[in-house]
């Protein structure tokens, strides 16, 4: 093979290399996490309640099975690590996520209780904005403990207003503190609503401007035809997010995808890849 390539004209050799490196219909498809048997459960005696409303001596330990090892774990909005044990917790509701080697995830919700803490209920609306800022909301309803209450979202400061607006979809942490400094922590999530991003008006122009060059598309898949693009929607999202498409990134004829374009592609796929 090496001798044959040496006899090829330089331009043809370069074309073959470009074709070989370009993403096409034969690329491995992302694993379908809807088919995973990944599971997460609470370990035996894995939830230990804090001893008082002002202490952070509670803990959670989980166990994972199925899917593809190795596993990593995260609690709330924290980063993933190989530890399945979480300590230093106060009273509250916590979401523990396991992620396997296929990037599939499962979530377990665990509640820790302590004497004297407020009782909290959350009312939420979905985020229907594709790009920043979000337009979801979280309303906190607290009772019990000793009022008045203050509220904190993620890394912000405590405030007296129980309504948080312009919230992005995803995982968030709410902390409620009463007048005796008793706190309760709640890990929650705001859903992504239908964003209105469609193929004809939003995605096709991106594909045409960024992915339409020789030896790529449509040669390696006619993603400029809606039915083909819809069939490959998950792969389009995966490859654009990873930077493997368009081939060459900023050096590609159309340049790299912007953060807004990447967000629109992800929203389109998450919305079910509508045509218009």
Quick description:
By secondary structure, the chain is of the alpha+beta class. The protein has 6 helices and 12 strands.
What does this structure look like?
- This protein has 276 residues and is an alpha+beta fold.
- The protein has 3 domains: 33-112, Immunoglobulin-like, CATH 2.60.40.1080; 119-190, Immunoglobulin-like (Sandwich); 195-270, no CATH class.
- Helix content is 21%, strand content 30%.
- The chain has 6 helices and 12 strands.
- It has helices at 2-7, 10-21, 199-210, 226-231, 233-242, 259-270, and strands spanning 39-48, 58-65, 72-75, 85-89, 92-99, 105-112, 119-125, 136-143, 150-153, 163-167, 170-177, 183-190.
- Strands 3, 5, 6, 9, 11 and 12 form a 6-stranded mixed β-sheet that branches. A 3-stranded antiparallel β-sheet has the order 1-2-4, with no helix packed on it. Strands 7-8-10 form a 3-stranded antiparallel β-sheet, with no helix packed on it.
- Helix 3 crosses helix 6 (259-270) and helix 5 runs antiparallel to helix 6.
- The model is unreliable at 1-26 (pLDDT under 50).
